[in-house]
Amino acid sequence: MSATINIQLFADYFGGAPVIQVPGRLFPIRVLYEPIRPEESTSGRRERLNVRPFLRVLQAIDHKYPPEERGDLLIFLSGVAEIGVVMEAVQSYAAFTKRWVVLPLHSTLSVAEQDKVFDITPPGVRKCIISTNIAETSVTIDGVRFVVDAGESPPPCPLLL
């Protein structure tokens, strides 16, 4: 099943309704891959999720871009538990630097809590939105300039009929 609409079928259903096409905006994308440092490896340890690479992203943004230059961060993780683990670490860094507002985004939050990701931060403060893949296709958040995909989304559930 595809989420893409069959335009002609839809227009015909409504008696040949006119179709207006608005092209989407494309933005340049630069993919950066940085392997996990050996000292940050969690292999052999009981740690579920290594938060250090996520902290390094915030630190790199703070180091490379002045606070006056806008641009929020969106991090994709596989689930609510992972969001909680990363949020705890990132919130400590945010409290220390006073340059970040850390916000979760997932389907079990109330609408009011989800809507916080659309709030505009004060000058010199960036948003770090830590989300499940809910924000990958269903939400557009203005101001997001940096995206981290942990590459660990859960496999889709089989369709049971």
UniProtKB/TrEMBL annotation:
One of its GO terms (molecular function) is helicase activity. Pfam families: Helicase_C. The keyword Cell cycle does not apply. Gene3D superfamilies: P-loop containing nucleotide triphosphate hydrolases (3.40.50.300). Keywords: ATP-binding, Helicase, Hydrolase, Nucleotide-binding. Residues 60-161 form the Helicase C-terminal domain. SUPFAM superfamilies: P-loop containing nucleoside triphosphate hydrolases (SSF52540). It comes from the Eukaryota. PANTHER family: ATP-DEPENDENT RNA HELICASE, ATP-DEPENDENT RNA HELICASE DHX34-RELATED. This is Probable ATP-dependent RNA helicase DHX34.
